[in-house]
Design brief:
Layout: H1 5-23, H2 27-33, E1 39-44, E2 47-52, H3 53-61, E3 76-80, E4 83-87
Antiparallel strand pairs: 1-2, 3-4
Helix pairs in contact: 1-2, 2-3
């Protein structure tokens, strides 16, 4: 049996929580999920926009959840040390 199976399951659960928090505009999930030095980056039309944790939480609080049932696919979970990157 894979000794890392429980770690993979834990990381998958965090990725799902993240995806659902984005989809349903659940800022309270990001409160506990994200480190105090969290930074969100958006690359759009060749320009980068950055939000620190408080600015991102305010952005999430200020929007309406997407309608209907969440639909997403987790393409990869990369973990290096204490960092985690989720590709959706």
């Amino acid at each position: 049996m894979d000794g890392n199976a429980h770690i993979d399951a834990d990381l998958h659960a965090v990725a799902v929580a993240y995806c659902e928090a984005v989809y349903f505009a659940r800022a309270e999930v990001f409160e506990s999920l994200c480190h105090k030095r969290f930074q969100m980056t958006l690359i759009e039309e060749g320009a980068a926009t950055f939000w620190d944790k408080s600015a991102y939480l305010e952005r999430v609080r200020g929007r309406t959840p997407f309608p209907g049932k969440a639909g997403y696919e987790i393409l990869a979970i990369d973990q290096a040390g204490v960092t985690l990157r989720v590709c959706i």
